[in-house]
Amino acid sequence: MRREHFFVFATLCLLVVGMTSVSSAGLPGWMKFGRGEEKSITWLHDLKEAQKVSSQTRKPMLVTFGASWCTFCKKMDETTLSEPKMVEFVTENFVPVHLDFDKNREVAKILEVETLPTMVVLSPQADLLGKIIGFKKSDELKDELNAAKKNQSVVGR
Predict the structure, then answer these.
(1) Phi, psi of 57 (to 5 degrees)
(2) pLDDT confidence of 6, banded at 50, 70, 90?
(3) Which entry of 12, 47, 69, 115 is 20 to 30 Å from 105 by CA?
(4) Helix H or strand E segment including 141
(5) 45: which DSSP letter?
(6) pLDDT above 80 (res 74)
(7) What are phi and psi of 27, to 5 degrees?
(8) pTM
(9) Is the pLDDT of residue 157 over 80?
(10) Is residue 129 over pLDDT 90?
(11) Which H, E and C letters describe 74-137, residue by residue?
C-alpha cells in the first residue's frame, strides 16, 4: 500500500473509531451513525478530507447542509437518507459530507446555499455537478443525484 493511501486509510479509520465511540444520544439526527444493527451513511464532516477521498476514489462529493433547527433537514435524515437502498446508493456512488450550515457559513456562501436542506454535488476537482434544494423522497433524490453524477463525465472532458 502506498504511503499516502495508508495515511488516508489510517486517518479514516481513526475518524470512524473516534466518532463511533462517542455517545450519539445528544447529537443531531444527521450526526448519528446508526441505531443498533441498522446501516447508515458514514458522513465526513471536513470538506478538505472529503476532497482527498474524492480524488482518490474518483467519486463525486455529496455535500449536505443541515442545521439543528431545520425541521425538514431532520425529516430527510430520518426518512430518505436512512432508507437502506438510499444508504447503499449514496455510499457506493459518492463521498458523503454533512456540514452544519451555522458552523460552515463561509462554505455555504461560496456554494450559494441559501435554504435548507440543500445538497451540492461536487467533482473531485470541486466542479459543481448539481444542486438539490429542499426535502426529497428517495426516488426523486436518486434521480437528481444520478443526473448530477452524469455531469461528472461532461465536466471531466
Answers:
(1) -95, -15
(2) very low
(3) 12
(4) helix 138-155
(5) -
(6) yes
(7) -90, 155
(8) 0.74
(9) no
(10) yes
(11) HHHHHCHHHCHHHHHHHHHHCEEEEEECCCCHHHHHHCCCCCCCEEEEECCCCCEEEEEECCCC
Q: Which residues of 128-137 are buried (b: 16+ CB within 10 A; e: fewer)?
A: ebbbbeebbe
Give whole-number Cα distances, 142 to 14, 53, 85, 132, 148, in Å: 30, 22, 10, 11, 10
Give one word for 101, left, alpha or beta, with left for phi > 0 and alpha for psi -120 to 50: alpha
Distance CA 28, CA 116 (A): 15
Kindly list the structural domains of the chain, giving each domain's residue range(s) and its CATH number in brackets, ordered by start.
25-155 (3.40.30.10)
**Residue 152's pLDDT band (cuts 50, 70, 90):** confident
Q: Which three cell numbers stand for residue 6?
A: 495508508
Helices 47-57 and 3-21, packing angle to 10 deg = 130
